[in-house]
Amino acid sequence: MSLHLGEISYTNILPFFHYLDRQELRNRGVQFYYEVPSSLNHSLAEGTIDIAAVSSFAYAKNYDRLCLLPDLCVSSKGKVRSIFLISKKPITELEEARIALTSASATSIHLVQILLKEFYHYDTIHFETVSPNLLEMMKTYDACVLIGDDAIKARREHTQYYYYDLGEQWFTHTGLPMTYAVFAVQKDALQSHPELLSYLSEEFAHSRDKARNDKYKKLAEDVSADMGGAPSFWESYYKGIHYVFGEEEKRGLLYYYSLAYKYGFIDKPIPALNIWGSGREVQSSK
Q: What is its biological role (predicted)?
């Protein structure tokens, strides 16, 4: 029986996947599926994917059915450089604004609403979810949220707008890292594929560490060739992202969940994170 692995089609997750021995994993029974975050979140919720690096928000929505792999995440302590609120006017002048939210995101579109409600005290902003196209968004709306490669490209090509990095905004107001993606696994898969999941978790960490030990040089060269932008930009970009799910990242994520519950974005509080331990048991981290 195969293990279905979902892979986000974004550059920020690449350190975990760049150096995987995909053929060896296929030989062991892993099948790869490539999707944008919102589609991957849905697949995990529906149970058609066993494990994936998914939106942190998707984990919260499916908390009872999922566990997290230890030590793996996509987070930032300050600027993330690929998740922006893009606005025609300063963030302090957005009362009664109309803001377009990218349909490709879950964590970030709730993060921006939390930031604007909790820390800027706005209560009359109108939000609408649309396809991620900057020019179309800005024809109709006062501001928009873009993530991932769409955001990076927008920042590089359209400098006439105000850009607010949501990772920086979160850190400024909370003093905590923001975790955007986690590696979530179905609890049923933990029972049916424990050995394979243990191997896969180790391989993710190995790929991450190999990219980091090279100071992201080879990865940056490959991404530059594929996506454009100078290799130096991509080296700096990856160095600014945290890929280890440490205690501070866990505290920041739990605070995000507490605010998501406060504003009605999730139905019940998340008191702790269910993390698969090194002894292959589920451990709660508060």
A: Catalyzes the dehydration of chorismate into 3-[(1-carboxyvinyl)oxy]benzoate, a step in the biosynthesis of menaquinone (MK, vitamin K2).
